[in-house]
């Protein structure tokens, strides 16, 4: 749809006027209030409605909570599509994220009440457990989103990831020529540095920022700063390389930390959807 | 010679060549006379290998088939100087060893050419002219076509010593000049090319200085301007900015600079400052000019006939410097002579379209004449110039009460009233208060000058016929005519005052202010008002650009606020009589209107309403300043970081932005969803680079268009493909973009990239379900290369603010955390907004 002159302008003005607010505070915590309301109503219902013979997923109230929970889970998992599909319309991903976080948290209440606290070794509890894994990993994600961006920004300054790589490549060029006069042993140390992939390290190294096999560190230990002029020069270059590498590794670590929780959150969501399907089918089959 | 030619064509530039070619094709007896020993002296004197463009690009050349049954005109394609001259030499059967013969086959026109034939006089009447040549010969012709261009009389320096023999208006071959002190005057393309030719080969050992009256190179092509400035940086030559000639003496030139006079040694001075028609010679033939003005052109009929019957003038001398116009005119005149009927000019169908919405079903000529005679601004234009101007314009009629534009609409075009009158609603709260603008006058000039949104709604007061000149056409008109520039300036000052003080004032009230007002250009960072100053007692209006208000010294200055174009400042000191409370400096290159304080006080004394309004402005400012100052005394650093941020944002171009993307790094998780959404909302290319760009404190300014008030990218777009759209966005039309890259080099923020349109991606669902294609976001370069059409031309790509996309900018909509915001500086650069707590 083409923008109608006038309406688009007022929309734009609203956007330019809008306060600058994070997803958690979006619209004065609108979705937090919705989630709280849902939770409180669910708890009150659970406490006040007389469920016979006992609170259970199979009572009418249990079904109600189950349906709400199911719909919520399906809708929450659609965020993955919403995020990637750039359709027109005045939706905002920030609003979706905000709702996703708070409504997702309310599932702790809705889901738990739906179980009627009947836990066992069955497909129903599997679904519940998976849901809790998804929610807990999500809480970790919210923490990461709230805490890490500052660190990421402070670490990178004005440099992009690509700039950091360029800088290392630049130092490497200088290292290569500066290392020419060194003796064999020192040369080998420098060669090891140049040969090692800048992304060297396991996933664990990436997350913990510990790189025991780092050739730059070894070379720094092996080439003396107080040796010949050439050695001192190489030492100096290695020091700046180590600093640059450290900045890049911090960058990679923070980026990884911002994403690693998704490696649990997303597969657990897929498993949850499958388990839910089994849960729903089995419930109706044995009804 | 006893032959009587049907037509004699004087001058062998594009216009003369085209006329001669057409005459030859028709078998009309003709002779082409050229003063020099080669064809097309202007093109011949271009530097070797120079590329000659076929301009204007949207005009049809009288190639084959414009009208059935009419012989096709001469062909012309852009190419190098050598290629074009080679073809023309062949047409005229001229052999010149310095110009290689064209490799492809060239039609032999058998043009009857005579070189070295300088015309010294013309006698006789239509049907029997005697053309006297310098070598004593006389040529007889029934009609004469003058296509001698304007190169004949280069402009002279306007200073003592302008006739000094070391001054030359042209440079044939830079390599003829070694170890010389050279001064080049004029920073158009010719001047820059000469300066570079002389300076950049160190073997020549020339010391070159090029004088620039201002600070920019508005008349030159981008590439030339950037080449010149980089040659200056690398030390090949010197650009003397804000410098103009004061006197030429033996071996030196005295120049006037900002700081006083300076003497530059000189062995040669090249003046590239344009030229005037060889008027005396033309007048001696009995041809009248449109005015006494030095830059006036001969009076011409629509068939290009002068006031001397039988003599026609075409080409640059007729006021048309562009090659395709010239060539079409040559064709048109020959056809007119051959058939006795006027050929419809090549732009006629285009003009019919321009006028088609006007009432009464009138002819193109009727409307051209109406506009020319009714609109004051167009008074000095010839019919031909009118045609050119109207081609770029929108002509429309409005019924009484209909809005022509509304307050706050984006718009930088200029309107002129040809019939009827319009009413300006000066008071946003009461539309019944209006100021009339009468027939012949202009409106919309404030938007044109300031680059900001319309300040008032303008409605037709009766049935009106108006013309809307595009920003480019309006600037060209103003640029080419000092009278037009002066008229627009005066009107815009008056209107800006009327608009500023709201209702209740009339033109008569502000007249003394307008009379005493002067405009001043202020370079970025230069103060207009200085804190503590007691001498300066003037008030100012920002004409274009914006001002930043600061208190305190240098690095520790406290930022108090931004004053956008169209606003008043400096009133406090005048009303109170106190020393200046703060420093006001230009945030970007700006222009202010300086009004003497006394005139302003006089007006205040007469108009209590205005006094009240000024008080209000003052109180608001004072309150806001006091608030910032009181925060400062809390010493928690808020105000200092606010000032630092403001300074940073100004460095990043916020002073001229209208809508810019910022990223709050306290919230940005680096997911690049903004970039992906941008690519997917457009044709698959991201118009923003999130991570690159500068950061200060928590604010990051990514590489993305700021939609400047006066967009740098528009400076020199040959097809005029860059426009401000209905939503205020600066948009590049990808259909008309020719991929020249001018906009990219003009943009100081690096937000334009040149890319071929990428191939279409498989749909999102097929990626999600089956993994086909590269997925959401911009596809990798290798994927685009592999799947794309290698012959697709590169075109300029930049942010269009998601114009036409429901929901608005995709980058903001797609940010999951609220880190991406788009702001306009006048709303964002306030203490409250910038120190807002977004924390969780």
Notes on the structure:
The complex is a heterodimer of chains A (287) and B (840). Chain A has 287 residues and is mainly α. Chain A has twelve helices and no strands. Chain A folds into two domains: 26-155 and 261-285, no CATH class; 161-259, no CATH class. In chain A, helix 2 (26-48) runs parallel beside helix 5, helix 3 runs antiparallel to helix 5 (93-115) and helix 6 (123-156) runs antiparallel to helix 11 (229-260). Chain A is elongated and about 90 Å long. Chain B has five domains: 4-152 and 277-343, FAD/NAD(P)-binding domain (3-Layer(bba) Sandwich); 156-273, FAD/NAD(P)-binding domain, CATH 3.50.50; 350-488, Jelly Rolls (Sandwich), CATH 2.60.120.10; 513-636, Sandwich (Jelly Rolls), CATH 2.60.120; 658-823, no CATH class. Chain B contains 25 helices and 43 strands. In chain B, the strands form twelve sheets. In chain B, strands 1, 2, 5, 6, 7, 8 and 19 form a seven-stranded mixed β-sheet that branches. Chain B has a five-stranded parallel β-sheet with strand order 10-17-11-12-13. In chain B, strands 20-27-22-25 form a four-stranded antiparallel β-sheet. In chain B, a hairpin with a 2-residue loop joins strand 6 and strand 7 (128-133). In chain B, helix 1 packs parallel to helix 7 (323-339), helix 13 (482-500) packs across helix 14 and helix 16 (597-606) packs across helix 17. Chain B starts with a strand and ends in a 6-residue tail after the last helix. The model of chain B is unreliable at 64-70 (pLDDT under 50). At the A-B interface, helix 1, helix 4, helix 5 and helix 6 of A face helix 19, strand 37, helix 23 and strand 43 of B.
Helix content of chain A: over 70%
Q: Give the domain tally of chain B.
A: 5
For the largest beta-sheet of chain A, the strand count, sense and barrel status come to: none
Mean pLDDT across every amino acid position of chain A: 91
Oligomer: heterodimer
Q: Count every beta strand of chain A, where a strand is a DSSP E run of 2 or more residues.
A: 0
Question: What is the general shape of chain A?
Answer: elongated
Q: CATH architecture of the largest domain in chain B, please?
A: 3-Layer(bba) Sandwich
CATH fold call of the largest domain in chain B = FAD/NAD(P)-binding domain
Total beta-strand segments of chain B: 43
Radius of gyration over C-alpha positions of chain B, nearest whole angstrom: 30 Å
CATH class of the largest domain in chain B: Alpha Beta
Order of helices and strands of chain A: HHHHHHHHHHHH
Euclidean distance between termini CA atoms of chain A: 49 Å
């Amino acid at each position: 749809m083409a923008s109608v002159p006038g309406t688009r302008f007022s929309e734009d003005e609203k956007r330019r006027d809008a306060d600058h607010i994070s997803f958690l505070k979006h619209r004065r915590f609108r979705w937090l209030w919705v989630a709280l309301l849902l939770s409180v109503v669910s708890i009150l219902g659970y406490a006040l409605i007389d469920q016979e013979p006992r609170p259970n997923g199979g009572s009418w109230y249990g079904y109600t909570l189950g349906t709400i929970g199911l719909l919520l889970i399906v809708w929450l998992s659609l965020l993955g599509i919403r995020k990637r599909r750039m359709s027109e319309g005045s939706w905002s991903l920030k609003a979706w994220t905000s709702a996703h976080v708070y409504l997702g948290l309310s599932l702790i209440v809705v889901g738990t009440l739906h179980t009627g606290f009947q836990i066992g070794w069955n497909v129903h509890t599997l679904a519940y457990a998976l849901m809790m894994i998804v929610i807990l990993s999500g809480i970790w994600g919210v923490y990461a989103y709230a805490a890490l961006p500052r660190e990421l920004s402070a670490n990178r300054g004005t440099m992009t990831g690509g700039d950091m790589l360029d800088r290392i490549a630049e130092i490497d060029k200088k290292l290569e020529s500066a290392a020419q006069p060194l003796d064999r042993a020192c040369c080998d140390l420098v060669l090891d540095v140049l040969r090692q992939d800048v992304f060297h390290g396991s996933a664990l190294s990436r997350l913990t920022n510990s790189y025991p096999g780092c050739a730059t560190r070894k070379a720094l230990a092996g080439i003396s700063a107080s040796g010949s002029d050439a050695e001192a020069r190489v030492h100096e270059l290695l020091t700046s390389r180590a600093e640059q590498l450290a900045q890049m590794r911090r960058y990679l670590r923070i980026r990884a930390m911002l994403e690693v929780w998704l490696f649990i959150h997303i597969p657990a969501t897929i498993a949850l959807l499958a388990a839910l399907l089994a849960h729903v089918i089995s419930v109706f089959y044995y009804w | 010679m006893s032959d009587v030619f049907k037509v004699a064509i004087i001058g062998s530039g594009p216009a003369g060549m085209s006329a001669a070619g057409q005459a030859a094709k028709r078998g009309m007896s003709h002779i082409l006379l050229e003063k020099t020993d080669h064809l097309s002296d202007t093109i011949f004197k271009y530097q070797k290998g120079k590329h000659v463009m076929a301009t204007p690009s949207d005009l049809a050349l009288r190639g084959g088939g414009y009208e059935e049954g009419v012989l096709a005109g001469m062909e012309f394609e852009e190419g190098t100087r050598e290629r074009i001259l080679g073809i023309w030499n062949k047409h005229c059967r001229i052999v010149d060893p310095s110009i290689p013969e064209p490799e492809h086959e060239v039609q032999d026109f058998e043009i009857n050419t005579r070189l070295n034939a300088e015309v010294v006089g013309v006698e006789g009447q239509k049907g029997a002219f005697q053309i006297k040549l310098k070598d004593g010969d006389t040529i007889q012709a029934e009609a004469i076509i003058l296509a001698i261009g304007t190169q004949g009389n280069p402009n002279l320096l306007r200073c003592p010593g302008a006739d000094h023999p070391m001054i030359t208006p042209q440079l044939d071959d830079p390599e003829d000049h070694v170890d010389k002190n050279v001064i080049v005057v004029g920073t158009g393309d010719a001047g820059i090319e000469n300066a570079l030719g002389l300076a950049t080969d160190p073997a020549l050992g020339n010391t070159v200085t090029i004088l620039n009256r201002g600070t920019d190179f508005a008349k030159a092509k981008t590439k030339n301007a950037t080449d010149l400035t980089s040659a200056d940086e690398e030390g090949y030559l010197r650009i003397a900015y804000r410098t103009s000639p004061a006197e030429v003496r033996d071996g030196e030139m005295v120049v006037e600079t900002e700081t006083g006079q300076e003497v530059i040694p000189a062995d040669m001075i090249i003046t590239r400052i344009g030229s005037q028609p060889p008027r005396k010679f033309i007048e001696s033939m009995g041809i009248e000019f449109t005015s006494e003005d030095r830059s006036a052109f001969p009076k011409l009929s629509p068939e290009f006939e002068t006031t001397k019957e039988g003599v026609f003038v075409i080409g640059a001398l007729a006021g048309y410097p562009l090659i395709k116009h010239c060539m079409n005119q040559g064709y048109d005149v020959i056809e007119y002579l051959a058939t006795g009927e006027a050929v419809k000019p090549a732009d006629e169908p285009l003009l019919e379209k321009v006028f088609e919405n006007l009432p009464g079903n009138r002819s193109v000529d009727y409307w051209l004449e109406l506009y020319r005679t009714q609109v004051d601004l167009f008074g000095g234009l010839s019919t031909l110039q009118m045609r050119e101007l109207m081609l770029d314009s929108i002509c429309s009629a409005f019924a009484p009460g209909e809005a022509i534009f509304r307050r706050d609409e984006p718009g930088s075009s200029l309107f002129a009233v040809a019939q009827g009158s319009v009413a300006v609603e000066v008071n946003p709260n009461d539309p019944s208060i209006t100021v009339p603008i009468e027939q012949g006058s202009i409106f919309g000039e404030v938007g044109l000058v300031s680059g900001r949104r319309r300040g008032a709604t303008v409605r037709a007061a009766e049935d009106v016929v108006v013309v809307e000149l595009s920003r480019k056409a309006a600037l060209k008109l103003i640029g080419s005519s000092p009278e037009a520039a002066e008229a627009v300036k005066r009107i815009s000052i008056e209107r800006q005052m009327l608009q500023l003080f709201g209702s209740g004032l009339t033109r008569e009230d502000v007249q003394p202010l307008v009379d005493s007002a002067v405009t001043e250009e202020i370079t970025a960072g230069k103060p207009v008002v200085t804190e503590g100053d007691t001498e300066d007692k003037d008030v100012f209006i920002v004409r274009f650009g914006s001002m930043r208000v600061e208190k305190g010294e240098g690095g520790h200055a406290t930022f108090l606020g931004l004053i956008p174009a169209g606003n008043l400042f400096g009133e406090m000191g005048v009303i109170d009589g106190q020393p200046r409370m703060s420093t006001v400096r230009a945030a970007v290159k700006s222009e202010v209107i300086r009004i003497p304080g006394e005139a302003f006080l006089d007006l205040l004394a007469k108009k209590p309403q205005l006094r009240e309004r000024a008080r209000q402005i003052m109180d608001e400012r004072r309150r806001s300043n006091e608030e910032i100052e009181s925060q400062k005394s809390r010493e928690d650093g808020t105000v200092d970081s606010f000032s630092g941020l403001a300074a940073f944002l100004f460095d990043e171009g916020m002073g001229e932005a209208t809508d810019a993307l910022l990223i709050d790094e306290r919230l940005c998780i680096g997911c690049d969803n903004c970039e992906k959404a941008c690519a997917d909302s457009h044709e698959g290319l991201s118009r923003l680079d999130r991570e690159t760009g500068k950061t200060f404190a928590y604010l990051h300014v990514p590489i993305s268009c700021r939609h400047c008030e006066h967009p740098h990218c528009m400076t020199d777009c040959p097809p005029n493909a860059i426009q401000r759209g209905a939503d205020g966005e600066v948009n590049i039309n990808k259909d008309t973009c020719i991929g020249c890259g001018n906009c990219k080099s003009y943009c100081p923020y690096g937000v334009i990239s040149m890319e071929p349109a990428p191939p279409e991606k498989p749909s999102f669902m097929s990626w999600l379900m089956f993994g086909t294609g590269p997925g959401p976001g911009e596809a990798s370069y290798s994927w685009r290369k592999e799947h794309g059409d290698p012959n697709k031309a590169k075109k300029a790509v930049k942010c269009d603010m998601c114009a036409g996309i429901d929901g608005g900018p995709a980058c903001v909509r797609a940010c999951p955390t609220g880190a991406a915001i788009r702001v306009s500086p006048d709303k964002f650069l306030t203490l409250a907004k910038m120190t807002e707590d977004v924390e969780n």
